[in-house]
Write a structure and sequence with these properties.
Layout lengths: L3 H19 L2 H7 L19 H12 L4 H15 L12 H14 L3 H13 L12 H7 L3 H13 L2 E9 L5 E8 L2 H5 L4 H13 L3 E2 L4 E3 L6 H4 L2 H9 L4 E10 L1 H10 L11 E3 L3 E2 L1
Antiparallel strand pairs: 1-2, 1-5, 3-5, 4-6, 5-7
Helix pairs in contact: 1-3, 3-5, 4-6, 5-6, 5-7, 6-7
């Protein structure tokens, strides 16, 4: 374990590196357009004098992270930060800022996850949006895949989305679930494949961000039309011998999920209240 003197020396050396970097032409080229007469100075996110950001911000430069990604992260933070009125700006809690800036070193290469980290950091510095921030959100982002982040972005726009489960009746032996929680939300969000999305929904449930109520469906004309006519569902319709059944369900954000969406995706996202009814199995 290094002693305090060596730690302070390393800290100061890293801070000197950051200071020199801020004077380079590439830094000015990146942040120059952000200067405005009434705007906060560019590069503000690590230069506000907030201890939680200052300490970890130095460590950011020490990690083996690509310079381009590092610059992009700072630029995204600054762009969001300058939209916050000065009187609404607050220091982020260390229990949010420190693990967030450490986590972005590992996960920040993924632009979709990096965007969530940026939004969460800025939300934690905005007194008008701070109430939506929860300390668990850093851990949650770390446990998301790119596809799951895209699912949440689509769900943030819609409020809820249709889901179906396909099963095969096995006589007295019960039934075999062939597809659990299939949604065509991935088609809209351009996700990779059905298996990835289905597993992703289960992970989002595990993280407490969404729920899929049992035996309930959305009451809205035609909302299941696209998913029932989906090529993936058609595959099971073709091979069915009258023993395949489908159940209409839906997904929606939980209370925690709504706050996560507002803190990490869209601070203006609304809580949609749909009309729901009992769902019955139907033969394919």
């Amino acid at each position: 374990m290094p002693d305090d003197d060596s730690t302070d020396g390393s800290f100061n050396a890293t801070l000197d590196t950051l200071t020199k970097f801020s004077e380079t032409s590439i830094y000015k080229e990146i942040f120059g357009p952000l200067f405005k007469p009434s705007a906060k100075p560019a590069g503000i996110v690590f230069g506000l004098g907030f201890k939680s950001l200052e300490l970890v911000g130095r460590a950011v430069a020490k990690r083996c992270w690509g310079q381009e990604e590092y610059i992009n992260f700072i630029a995204q933070c600054d762009e969001r930060l300058m939209a916050i009125p000065d009187n609404d700006l607050i220091e982020p809690e260390p229990r949010i800022a420190i693990p967030l800036l450490e986590a972005v070193q590992i996960h920040g290469y993924d632009e979709n996850l990096r965007e969530l980290f940026v939004n969460l950091l800025i939300s934690s510095m905005n007194s008008q949006n701070f109430s939506t921030v929860h300390p668990s959100f850093v851990r949650i982002i770390k446990e998301l895949s790119t596809n799951e982040a895209l699912i949440l972005k689509e769900l943030a726009k819609l409020g809820n989305a249709p889901v179906v489960t396909i099963s095969q009746k096995m006589g007295y032996a019960g039934r075999l679930t062939l597809v659990k929680y299939y949604s065509n939300l991935g088609v809209q969000g351009r996700l990779l494949n059905v298996a990835t999305e289905t597993a992703g929904l289960e992970n989002l449930i595990r993280l407490g961000l969404i729920e899929i109520p049992a035996d309930m469906k959305i009451v809205s004309e035609g909302i299941y039309t696209d998913i029932l006519n989906d090529n993936f569902v058609d595959r099971y319709r073709v091979v069915s011998t009258g023993d395949h059944v489908i159940q209409k369900l839906f997904m929606r954000p939980t209370g925690l999920g709504i706050n996560f969406i507002r803190a990490c995706i869209d601070e203006n996202a609304e809580h949609h209240c749909g009309t729901y009814a009992q769902s019955q199995e139907e033969y394919l």
